[in-house]
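Thread: Newbie trying to understand structure tokens

Hi all, I'm a second-year student working on a class project, and my supervisor (Dr. K.) asked me to get a predicted structure for one chain before our next meeting. I've only ever worked with sequences, so writing a 3D structure as a token string is new to me. If someone could post the tokens and maybe explain what I'm looking at, I'd be very grateful. Here's the chain:
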Amino acid sequence: MADIIQLLPDHVANQIAAGEVVQRPASVVKELLENAIDAKATSIKLVIKDAGKTLVQIIDNGKGMSVTDARLCFERHATSKIRKAEDLFNIHTKGFRGEALASIAAIAHVELKTKPEEDEIGTHICIEGSNVNSQEPVVVPTGTTISVKNLFYNIPARRNFLKSNPVETRHIIDEFHRVALAHPKIEFIMISNGASIFNLPSSNIRQRIVNIFGAKTNEKLVPVSEETDIVVVDGFINKPAFAKKSRGEQFFFVNNRYIKSPYLHHAILSAFEGLIKEGTQPGYFLFLEVDPQSIDINIHPTKTEIKFDDEHSIYAMLRATIKHSLGQFSIAPVLDFNKDSGLETPYDYNNKKPVPPTIEVDRNFNPFQKETSQGSYNSSFKRDKTSSWEAMYVGLENGASTEKFSKHDLKFESDEVTGKLFETNDNVSGRSTFQLQKKYIISPVKSGMMVIHQNLAHQRVLYEELLKNITVKEAVSQQLLFPLQIHLSHIDIAIIKGIQEQLEHTGFVFSSFKIDSLEISGIPVNITESQISNILVQLINDINDEIPEPGFSQNDLLAKSLAKSFAVKTGKSLNTEEQEHLIHQLFACKEPTISPTNKPVLITIDASDLDKKFM
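---
Reply by user tm_fold:
Sure, no problem. This is what the structure looks like when written as tokens:
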């Protein structure tokens, strides 16, 4: 029998490894940024074109590589961090497997320029699909510049699986955030298609968070700090009032490495229990320092999952630390039985002598003096000498006065009674609709009755109206007397600018855009200024959750999100005219029975079904 088992060629093995390491351009960005950090760089610049599909370039001022190292770094399992198996349990660096550069070089055109500080000239290497095309000396500054071009050029099937440029750019920015937050002392610059996205100077962790997510983030942060024998916890959590429905600003770092841990995330949620609404997520930026020998980070190709030796203790410590910070900074409600501090004497009055009260008497006052001689009275309040109080009753002495005056002509002032002890139902005879529990609208039909969900019905009406306005470009806007300024992060501002045209077709008018804020001078009708911030935040969250493609799907998501924000909420009382108007609008829609999110808007209860209930 012939032998059928054989060793894979290196270029095939590298492409298989690339399937684990490089899923998209963001994976390349992560690996190259971590290599620059391991090279002790103090300034790192990221340049991308076409969301990394055409170019991903990293420029750092690290220690660089020698001629031999520059050639050897593209070999499989070539690493400077591991010498023996025991080193896997004492890792202090980012990359250690030696698979990243070999995998990237197998599926892209890679160009490397590097020079160590002690050498006068550097090395320039060009690789295409694991094949070294050229290696020659070059004059370059100290550090490393690596360019990855035409990703997946030799694997078209993998390239076809990539999403649109906005989606892939969003993934790259997420990886950039994770690396930049973990290393605030390093300067980071990001440029996309020639436009500067981030310019983060060296700073502390709080300033780095503010520089990334906007100046408004500073007021949300609550510091967290605790040191124990098991773990050292440091970082910040967001105040409960700023909890969101999306899981955007949630970052766990263990030994300056970003990780995902549903178990530790549950510890955060339990610490916030009772302080945030159900269905919302708290934001946090937490840095955990543990003994490298007590964790295993080699259980996932992307190294975003970590196995702890004593996970239960870390869970308990993290939960207690968060609760302590919430209580220490008076975020969590507490019972305070101490006396009111307002009753205590201020410090300024400690050494102050008491001053006796003074009494002032007007010695010129004469109670028997005539009013005309009192100069202190206003002349407008002086009584006419000719007038007398008896004049009020002139004409009432004889009986004839009763023809002119009657007690029925008297009108008494009284307070209007507005409160009611019991809530009354406005349903009266002849009404075609009535509201049930301020949530449903009941309308009789021939076969029985129809129950309409008022919120979902209004969503359907607004959805079709907004979609028409966006496509036909017709909308009515109400101008604001004073422009409204809203603070958002750099990324959120970029998202709003990307859909600015569609928003303007719905009634928004934008005056100006800045790095971390925007100004609105006009808003759609039927909404108030106080709702604008929540509407835009909800819209950004919906876009981040679904990340739609440009075109109709983006317009569709925009209309769905705005309809959800504009629609009448459950608990809103509607009068008869509003109920009937909503029903008429609903049945004028193309799809009156289904909401924009494919939920039933109405149900019909047959009279025969009601009859069965009484049998």
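A couple of things are worth pointing out once you decode it. Confidence is low (pLDDT under 50) at residues 373-382, 419-430. The two ends are 81 Å apart (CA to CA). Feel free to ask follow-ups in this thread.
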